[in-house]
Amino acid sequence: MKMNEAREAIIDRLALELPQAIDLDRFLRAVVKELGLMMEVDRCDVIQLASPGQLRISHEWRASEDVLSSEGTIIPLDVIQLTEHVDLSKPIRMDDTSAPGLDHKVRLLASTLGTRSLLVVPVILNGSVLGLVGLHNTRAPRVWLDEEVSFLQSIAKQLAIGYQYTRLFTDKQREAETTRALLEIANALNAHSDFGKVTSLVLERAVAMVHADYGALGVVDPNGGRITLAAFIAAPHAETENVRGLIDVHGKSLDISEYPALMDVLAQGKTFRLLDTELPFPFRLGFNAVLGGRAALVAPVRVGGQTFGLLGLVWSVAREGFDDQEVALVEGIADQIGTALERDQLSAEILRLRSELHERHSEDKIIGQAPSIRRAIKLALSVADTQTSVLLQGASGTGKELLANLIHYNSGREHKPYIKLNCGAIPETLLESEIFGHEKGAFTDARARRRGKFEEADGGTLFLDEIGEMSLSAQVRLLRVLQNGELTRVGGNEVIKTDVRVIAATNVDLERAVEQNTFRRDLYYRLSVFPIRLPSLKERAEDIYPLVFHFLEHFKQKTGRFVGGISKQALHALTSYDWPGNVRELENAIEFAVIIASGRQIEVADLPEAISKLGTAEEGRLKGDRGRAASEGRTVTIEIDLPSTMDEIERQAIEATLDYTGGDKTRASKTLGIGRKTLYRKLEQYGPEERDG
Region 35-58: what's the mean pLDDT? Predict the structure, then answer.
């Protein structure tokens, strides 16, 4: 009778708690307090099944401060093994935990809990054990009565109902929050016409809502093999230096055909859940170290029933998984973006065109994220669809022709003729004829009429490279065409009307040439209405990495030779070099290295001599630093390039260890924890250079 009255009293008091605090935490704290007081025990607690290998004491009440606290304690106990000794679905009653004959697993549990006498009953919901409620006497044994066990079981049933009630309420709250969040995003999408701006706003909101470290939106090309970054947003607390470095290295466009999981998202249109604990070691290492991630969700963005892009959110903290509410929220955001794109097909097409911009001609990509080159590209795209003449200025090898290509292919004239002429490569006596054409008999060997480049380019674009080399007489003719679109062939009188967009380029200072009377002032002013300066490679050193990897892939395909990447030392040599020949010199250097290093990784010695000298000096410095560290008893660190295969990572570790031990292979094998024969076998695998070193 006493136990029934006590149960009713506790339930009544808990009922008063629920309307005030519907969260599970306060509910459980009320339970352990009421039970502990009622049952006159030293401690009452709730033990949750944190994972198959752990128990965690989540809530606790103590009779006094003298009673040892165990709240927050994690017990590394394999629950599956424990169930072989104890049936967790039934009460556990131990009057005296020091009594002989107790199973060692049970004794370990009692010892960890600091308990002399223990009564534990399970909290069961829909057949599953959610946790345990425990009553403890910490100082003396206690005989637990049957009615006390029945009473605690009845409370555990009420606890399960309360848990279900609070969980349902919490789920409803989260569902309401999700709905409000999606409504906010929908309002943002409807309130802005600049899709780039609104995408950033949406990503920022999404990152905040799901407490991710950063988010990104990628646009997939029509063939589905590449993805281009359209927006990237990080939380204020997030450390994204490595991620941004990866973007700099690969540019904003990435080949995803080698990533099956992402290709499955595109093909099946299903959200991909990524946990680092499920990844093979090399991929987990890359995900953790480079992307700064421990977990990620990647959802498809659909437009018109087709996958247009991918929305990705990354967390830097370890997770056991994602609940359905989180996945639904991310998928809802992706659907909102897709709906906005479908509504505004123009924005979708603009993003698609941006994605394809550098894919028109695989050998003609403009690679780089440095502000100076991005400004040049932005100016080129701004002037592309006008009729304005453009003057491209920059040293040889900076990419003036590539920028001219970009202007033409985005000008609205891309389906019309595109004629290129290097004025410095044609003798002065023939240049006028080449540009403007000539009549039969205009000069010796002029046996027939010939149309010039202006006539050939009618309706399209004429690119005049090295225009500073043009003769003064040719400059007069060019000025006339630019002013009124009219020309006469050499030796002729017929006025010919043309519609030609002129893009001129020079690597000389035309202002100085005007002062020296080698270039006409009026022509200079006509051409320099819209000047664009291209930076030297030295001015955009941050772009060397992405350029190296771009040229590496290009020449691997062009030459048909396999190259297993490029060493960090070789990369350092490339970034340390001054590049007087700019991007063209870098391109030639990589082609040279691919041919030399066929079948293996590019090393410093494979680079042209002027560059390899710098790298050899750096390698010597590293070896010296490692040797000095060993003699002084210090440790050293090595940097691992990602992505790398396990063989490549292993090779770097072995080479650095040999440097550290001064080439002593016995010490190196002991330091690495491998046998000496194993070390020799691996050195044999790497080749004679490593075997001798």
Answer: 82
